[in-house]
Amino acid sequence: MAIYAQQHHYTQTIRGTVIDATSKSPIPGANIIVLNTEPLIGTASDETGEFKIANVPVGLHDINVSFIGYKPVVLRNLQIKSGKEFVIKIELEELVISTEEIVVKAHGRKDKPLNEMANISARSFTVEETERYAGTWLDPARMAANYAGVMAVGDQRNDIIIRGNSPLGLLWRLEGIDIPNPNHFGTLGTTGGPISILNNNLLDNSDFFTSAFPAEYGNALSGVFDLNMRNGNNNKHEFVAQFGMNGFELGAEGPFSKSSKASYLLNYRYSTLAIFDAMGISFGVSAIPQYQDVSFKINIPGTKIGKISLFGVGGKSFIDILNKNRKPNDWTFGRNDLDLRFESAMGVVGLSHLYFFNSNTRIKTILATSYTKSSAKADSAYIDRPSLNYYGDESSEIKYSFSTKFIRKINAKNNYSAGILLDLYTISYDDSALTDEYLFRKITNIDNKAILLTQLYGQFQHKFTDNLNFYLGMHYQHFNLNGSQSLEPRLSLKWNINTRHALSAGFGMHSQMQPRLFYFLQTLNPDGSIQKTNEDLGFSKSKQFVLAYDYNLNKDLRFKFETYYQNLYQIPVELRPSTYSIINYGNEFYPERADSLYNAGTGENYGLEFTLEKFLSNNYYFLITASLFESKYEGSDNIERNTIYNGKYVLNFLSGYSFKIGRYNSLNLDLKVVNAGGKHYIPIDLEKSKIIGDKVLDYSRAYEPKYDPYFRIDTRFSFKLNRKKFNTELAFDIQNITNHKNILLETYDIETGSIRYDYQLGLFYVFLIRFQF
Q1: Residue 493: other Cβ atoms inside 10 A
Q2: Which of 63, 209, 376, 723 is most enclosed, with most CB atoms within 10 A?
Q3: Is 269 helix (H, G, I), strand (E, B) or coil?
Q4: 340 DSSP β-pair partners
């Protein structure tokens, strides 16, 4: 059903579907009202749950959605643009107790997770947030670093530390399937990189978890990004062109035909950093990073066999860092005597099928294949130096994935789901190094080895009342290489005391396989034989406890407090007594690998988190977060130490204001301030380094010293212009406006025989221009 609003010079259409939040079946007859319009405009959803409101004035709008027997929802500050239809999926939660006497207040918290099973340590985020927050580079990971309990590793990469855990513990999921590291210049075994392959022009609202997440998520210790791609517009063709620091982009979407509801969505991006380099803008190295990526989704709803979608994301990147081109302040990556070449590639293609047996029962099945590759070469920059250095790596993984999930809504009080995930890896690792005797030694040498990770889960939710619900789940996983297995209970409880106050509690056991390349590292025995000493490594494990309190001061302002404790165990450490633990792994461009490991290490994380957040209303917003935490570990020497990530505290302040320019345009000013404790590190033994002419670390003081606190102020200025058939956005970011020198790492300069520091990005400029039509 379509209702047409009064005539305005610049207008757009709001379309979408209204569905049951649990069963995902359509809700016909729901009322959709655009608030604060004169006269009031709106419509009702048809028999398929779809609705359309045409001629809505361009600008910010609130929408009220209601249906008898369901909790009403108010969606606030929806940005309506002239160059793109606004298409939205609205989920309503069925009331447990539904009588005419009960009056339910409309709600619409933007941070409420999309996953109904999530009661604690979870929130949703919008694409708008990745664009609005200063310093995010349109990157979901950099955006999430503003949330309580999360901090970034550094400016040069988007790895994130969640509650003191290694970035290694993060799970990336896209369209319901686990995917490899979705970042350019990402190495196998890590979860971050300098530039995200994920394109925010194609993403939909998604979830982010920081602890005790539901049982459908496995093989992760720290957190989960559960990302969704939006469907293309199935009513009209639309296009986007964008140019900025992240690259030059072209995108298109639309219907396949007028008679079909099937749609396509496609976007391509190519790097533009050569242009910025010519403008004198430094990004840490004299070499120019090169990359490109593509994303797509084809959605075919309403077939006789259900809804079918085909999706994909992929990208490749490379960089040559030559010592002769280095500038004094360039990053050395720990060595200033090497020529480096690095390449990476990542891709995933998936086919998804959703079938409804009836309005309360459905099954979703996904078949996918993914590919990831990284290659590196390090060669001495001095051919006349006797201590020649050389390292080469060519590693790749192909993964074939199968996932199926059965979901059943029994009634308004009870629902459950169960599923299976199979990941079959075909791995090829080949890397070698030149020894002091000028002999090449193979570190790994595996070709087309097949390994299988199996995950099973079941979960149940019971709503005692509309304000009290309980969740119970169980996850199981098995690794066929060495028979490792884990059974992991998850549970949580949430009590909405009233419309303002809520308490939550959660517990979860979690486990994670090691970076796969670790299992195949080769140890050279004294007799010259080779042994894979890591092949029997089990899962790293964690027990996580969380308590939370939410206080809604008003409809747009909320306060949240969380406290947590995490016990980590069976962490790989070295057989010989040492400071090493894989708990400190995962935040470098090319991290070191260790052989001869076993599961005897431990660790613990605990802390307090505070959030004060005002959602965008009355033209402004702010987000203030404070995290106080401890992160400790024990290696095989049984001495408790700081983890590399134990910065103790993180403080974030973000705010923005939108000035209306004329009737349809706006000028937006955004600010971000972050202050965080520095990372711990292993110091260099300067005297021993001078004696041997290379870096020597002082392991007796491992992770005792720490870098100075990290401090940075970012600003963003954007102008949004609407015209009848298109809209334009111009944005300009000034990052680290005080040019504060944040230390990246301590290294040894073999030319001067002194300690030097690599610094993170100084004053940095980013701009963006986008056309939608």
Answers
A1: 17
A2: 209
A3: strand
A4: 321, 378
Radius of gyration of the chain, Cα coordinates, nearest whole angstrom: 26
Question: Residue 439: how many CB atoms within 10 A of its CB?
Answer: 9
Least confident of 319-323, 661-665, 711-715: 319-323
pLDDT tens track for 61-118: 999 999 999 999 999 989 999 999 999 999 999 999 865 444 455 555 678 999 999 9
Residue with token string 């292993």: 682
> Cβ distance 597 to 576 under 8 Å?
no
596 within 8 A of 576, measured Cβ to Cβ: yes
pLDDT at position 390: 72
Q: What's the CA gap between 548 and 560, in Å, rounded?
A: 7
* Token pair of 642 as six digits: 């700081």
- Residue 241 identity (one-letter amino acid): A
Q: In this predicted model, what pLDDT tens digit does every residue of 458-478 receive, in sequence order?
A: 999 999 999 999 999 999 999
- Residue in the structure block whose two tokens are 């860092």: 321
- Decide if 19 contacts 27 (C-beta within 8 A): yes
How far apart, in Å, are the Cα atoms of 668 and each of 61, 146, 528, 719, 729?
Answer: 17, 19, 66, 6, 10
pLDDT in tens, 538-554: 999 999 999 999 999 99
Q: How confident is the model at residue 321 (pLDDT cuts 50, 70, 90)?
A: confident
| Rounded CA separation 52/55 (Å) | 10
Mean of the per-residue pLDDT values of the chain: 91
- Within 8 A by CB and 6+ apart from 35, the residues are 61, 62, 63, 64, 74
Helix (H, G, I), strand (E, B) or coil at 350: strand
Vertex 119 angle, CA 652 and 615, to 5°: 40
CA angle 322/761/201 to nearest 5° reads 95
CA 737 to each of CA 135, 365, 628, 713, 763: distance values in angstroms, whole numbers, following the listed order: 11, 48, 26, 6, 6
- Residue the block writes with tokens 């029962």: 361
- For 496-513, the pLDDT digits (tens) are 999 999 999 999 999 999
Residue with tokens 């917003």: 621
| Structure confidence at residue 253 (pLDDT) | 97
Q: By three-state DSSP, how is residue 700 classified?
A: helix
- How many whole angstroms separate alpha carbon 472 and alpha carbon 369? 31
Q: How many CB atoms sit inside 10 A of residue 507's CB?
A: 16
Q: How many CB atoms are located within 10 Å of the residue 430 CB?
A: 16
Contact by Cβ (8 Å): 237, 265: no
Among 279, 275, 252, CA closest to 263 = 252
What single-letter DSSP state applies at residue 232?
P
Please tell me the distance from the alpha carbon of residue 316 to that of residue 319, in angstroms, as a whole number.
Answer: 11
Question: How crowded is the C-beta side of 445, counted as CA atoms within 13 Å?
Answer: 11
C-alpha atoms less than 13 angstroms from C-alpha of 560 in its C-beta half-sphere: 24
Backbone angles phi, psi at 368, to 5 degrees: -150, 155
Question: Which of 271-280, 617-626, 664-673, 744-753 has the least mean pLDDT?
Answer: 271-280
| Mean local confidence (pLDDT), 49-65 | 93
Residue 135: strand, helix, or coil: coil
What's the distance, Cα to Cα, between the start and end of the chain in Å? 25
